[in-house]
Design the sequence.
């Protein structure tokens, strides 16, 4: 995969997408990482990025949500750790501890739930899990981030002296306060704090009566603030101890910095790991807002976008409460290039940008807003010519710039290229520019490139019909109101509705007629024919929908009639069998009645028994023939059914093998935790039921008519309970 040009990213407004993703980032490092997103040049790394984002999106739907990954950057601390004899401040160690704790929590989480997040587990498994840094910091600092008294024996001794001295200072100050208050030298407020020292609030007239250090006065000058003489000496001793305390703390911080310096590479990997998680989370949250998914990635040259939305347009309309129209488009070896035509403001350009932006987003490791049955391949190059292409810096006209751009297309275009050109061929004389555009299109076709262009040129529409692997398409308009429907119809070109739109916008009919006379008759007829075809297509689509509805109704009625007919046939066959059985019993009864009458007349028992046994043997021989015939018929039916079943089983086995091979080629999807009320089904089963109860590892599923019991791991998730 080659690098996609910066111009392509600008044309498709890729930076705007990055700006919106950055808003979901929790950290400044994450925002910076988002701003650096660009299309991958390595397919393996791209797939890892896509699967990571897909797994994170899956975490929004299950109970095993990924823990918070917020952290404070330690980029400066990582630089300082490389400087010998430099020591980190207390706040830096707080950030380092927080970073290590968050990283360890995520490493353990992904290890615990590696079945749900296999790719994220592989990412985190590369990072070393250790509590060494956290434990070293915890030995020095308490939970409030202050250095502990027992961080060293020296510090413990200094702080013990400090506490004792502070008690003596307080006692001395209280004594002086009481003494001078009794003498009436103090103001009503009695005391205050200046420079973190308790001082007496002395009335200005008694300032010379109170011995001590003058530390200030009130704004009016009526009060002076004096530290009493009795506490001065003790305060000096306190300052000396505080200095020793600070020196000891610096010594401790230097020792801790020296220890943590050994973990500088690990801390750097922690920050990179959390930045990566923040980047993945931001992409996942953006994807969740778009209802974006990971489509099927295929190696064949094929692009099938079903119900694709332009991300920026979708979010803008969503904020306004307006509807966004999705597009469905397909490019493959038999339809490599599509020429889209139709009136302006019909959605041609937005369709072009949708395809280009979604392709760039996918190749940058982002999920895209398409239907789950969509398929996408990867292109080495994506070439675009969209929007106003006038180059002021190079003093080039729009057409000159476009020709220069087309020259680049010719140099780079090949079978692994996707090109997107808006208003192909415009900017020059219509006939000459159209002819040149036609020549370009023929070259792109010969190079086996994939692409989509929009145009109003009739010669390009004709060329699309003549050349294999190029198809026409148009953006549908309501022929009556001339309002766009924003639906792309493949298979035929679209009319520009030039004169119809002009008439709708109030241009005098006489002026329109005058314009028509100036145009060649063939062109007018051609445009009229296309417009007529579009109208007919619109009518045909409505008729098709109506016929489809009617056909569905008739199919249902036919099925009902067939069922009724089958029931009647079954009843008739049943009645026929009953009738035949009754007739046989009647005949048998008549013969027995004759034997009884004969015995009544001649009283010959032997003859009666002989005739009766003969009758029974005849009936038994009939039974044997019927049974043998039925067995033969049944055997033939069984063999036929057996052969049919074996064929079907063989087909099913092949499908299962293919599915297993496909599943093995792709990483496992994150497993969803089942909740009560969820819609579930047995693995490889079709019937869907509701999960009613879970006991240990057994599940009870209600299928409506009956409830069944099975193992929990035999179930797969279908739909979340509403």
Sequence:
């Amino acid at each position: 995969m080659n690098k996609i040009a910066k111009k392509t990213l600008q044309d498709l407004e890729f930076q705007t997408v990055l700006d919106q993703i950055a808003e979901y980032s929790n950290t400044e490092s994450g925002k910076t990482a988002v701003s650096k997103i660009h299309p991958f040049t390595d397919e393996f790394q791209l797939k890892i990025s896509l699967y990571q984002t897909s797994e994170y999106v899956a975490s929004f739907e299950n109970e095993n949500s990924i823990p918070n990954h917020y952290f404070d950057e330690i980029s400066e601390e990582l630089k300082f750790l490389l400087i010998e004899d430099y020591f980190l401040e207390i706040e830096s160690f707080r950030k380092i501890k927080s970073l290590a704790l968050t990283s360890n929590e995520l490493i353990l989480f992904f290890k615990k739930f590696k079945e749900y997040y296999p790719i994220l587990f592989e990412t985190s498994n590369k990072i070393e899990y250790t509590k060494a840094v956290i434990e070293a910091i915890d030995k020095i600092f308490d939970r409030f981030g202050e250095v502990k008294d027992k961080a060293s024996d020296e510090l413990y001794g200094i702080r013990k002296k400090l506490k004792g001295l502070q008690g003596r200072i307080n006692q001395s100050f209280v004594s002086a306060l009481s003494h001078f208050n009794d003498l009436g030298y103090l103001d009503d407020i009695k005391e205050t704090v200046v420079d973190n020292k308790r001082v007496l609030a002395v009335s200005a007239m008694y300032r010379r009566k109170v011995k001590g250090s003058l530390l200030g006065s009130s704004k009016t000058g009526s009060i002076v603030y004096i530290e009493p003489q009795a506490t001065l000496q003790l305060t000096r001793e306190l300052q000396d101890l505080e200095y020793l305390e600070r020196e000891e703390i610096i010594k401790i911080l230097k020792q801790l910095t020296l220890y943590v310096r050994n973990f500088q590479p690990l801390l750097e990997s922690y920050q990179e790991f959390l930045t990566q998680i923040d980047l993945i989370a931001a992409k996942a949250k953006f994807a969740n807002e778009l209802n974006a998914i990971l489509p099927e990635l295929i190696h064949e040259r094929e692009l099938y976008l079903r119900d694709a939305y332009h991300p920026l347009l979708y979010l803008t309309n969503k904020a306004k409460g307006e509807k966004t129209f999705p597009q469905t488009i397909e490019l493959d070896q038999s339809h490599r290039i599509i020429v889209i035509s139709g009136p302006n403001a019909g959605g041609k350009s937005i369709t072009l940008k949708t395809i280009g932006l979604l392709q760039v987003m996918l190749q940058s490791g982002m999920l895209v807003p398409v239907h789950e049955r969509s398929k996408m391949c990867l292109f080495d190059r994506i070439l675009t010519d969209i929007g106003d292409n006038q180059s002021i810096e190079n003093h080039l006209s729009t057409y000159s710039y476009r020709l220069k751009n087309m020259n680049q297309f010719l140099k780079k275009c090949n079978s692994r290229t996707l090109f997107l050109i808006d208003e192909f061929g415009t900017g020059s004389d219509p006939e000459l520019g159209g002819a040149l555009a036609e020549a370009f299109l023929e070259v792109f076709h010969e190079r086996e490139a994939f692409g989509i262009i929009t145009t109003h040129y009739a010669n390009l529409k004709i060329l699309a019909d003549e050349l294999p692997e190029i198809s026409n398409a148009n953006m549908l308009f309501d022929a009556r109101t001339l309002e766009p429907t924003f639906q792309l119809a493949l298979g035929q070109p679209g009319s520009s509705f030039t004169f119809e739109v002009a008439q709708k916008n109030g241009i005098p009919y006489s002026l329109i007629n005058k314009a028509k006379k100036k145009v060649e008759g063939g062109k007018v007829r051609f445009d009229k024919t296309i417009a007529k075809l579009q109208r007919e297509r619109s009518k045909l689509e409505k008729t098709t929908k109506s016929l489809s509805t009617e056909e569905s109704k008739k199919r249902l009625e036919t099925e009902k009639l067939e069922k009724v007919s089958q029931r009647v046939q079954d009843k008739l066959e049943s009645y026929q069998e009953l009738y035949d059985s009754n007739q046989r019993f009647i005949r048998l009864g008549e013969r027995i009645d004759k034997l009884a009458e004969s015995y009544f007349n001649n009283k010959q028992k032997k003859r009666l028994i002989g005739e009766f046994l003969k009758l029974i043997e005849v009936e038994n021989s009939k039974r044997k023939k019927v049974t043998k015939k039925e067995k033969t018929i049944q055997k033939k039916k069984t063999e036929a059914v057996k052969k049919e079943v074996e064929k079907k089983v063989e087909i099913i086995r092949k499908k299962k093998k293919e599915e297993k091979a496909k599943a093995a080629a792709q990483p496992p999807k994150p497993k969803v935790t089942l909740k009560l009320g969820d819609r579930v089904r047995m693995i490889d089963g079709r019937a869907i039921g509701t999960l009613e109860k879970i006991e240990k590892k057994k599940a009870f599923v209600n299928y409506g008519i009956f409830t069944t019991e099975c193992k929990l791991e035999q179930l797969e998730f279908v739909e979340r309970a509403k």
